[in-house]
Amino acid sequence: MVGNRSKAERAVGMVSRKISRQVRRGSPRGWRAPPDPGNIRGPPPPGAVSEFARFALVTFTSVLFIVDPVAVVPAYLVITQNETTEERRRTALRACVAMTVLLVVFAATGTLIFRAFGITLPAFRTAGGLILWFTAMEMLRGERTSQEGRIELQEGREKEDVALTPLAIPLLAGPGAISTVVVLAGQAHEPASAAAVYASIVVTGLLSYVTLRLGVQLLSRLGKTGIRVMTRIMGLLLAAVAVQFVLTGLREGLGLGTGP
Description:
By secondary structure, the chain is mainly α. 79% of the residues lie in helices and 0% in strands.
């Protein structure tokens, strides 16, 4: 019995080796077994990519235009007129860092604020759109009275440290900027969208620092008229974003369907 079993095992081994040699001879050089279809991951659908790209573009332009560092340049030069070049550099850096941190904190805690006060996202989106609308109207008139009033400028002339107030708050991060990042963060339902919001805030902070550092050159080349023209163009685009915020908030609040 034992001898017969060993003979059978040897016969099976010989047959299996023969079959494997035939398979290798019949297969082309470099042939590999096809991968498991369950492990194949294709590219994301085009609609998802375009939707994310559109959200990232709207987020970045909204944050950059509402902060509007170019329009802050004249006020920045006025309130830092008694500072040296190195002191102006430190003031601009501290102001932009404070503005970035403030907007990131509000973007991260916006949902918690909603829950604490029982505020729905459509309600705040509508309110934020209205605030953004009034800010855009001021920009279309070439003014920033809600952020650059006489009181803020006078305080800036009298204070020794103007980086936090009034430069960071409210000249850079005013009510419109805060409400905008809160609304945008509330719309970010995916990790990639949330990353786009925070990245937009950080990039805006970097661009604001560069703009303030080049404030003298910008003012000499563009002049106050050129800065007002750029402010009006940004205000026009912000007005369209504000209207979209309000329409989306009303549509979601009234249950009329989901919007973009």
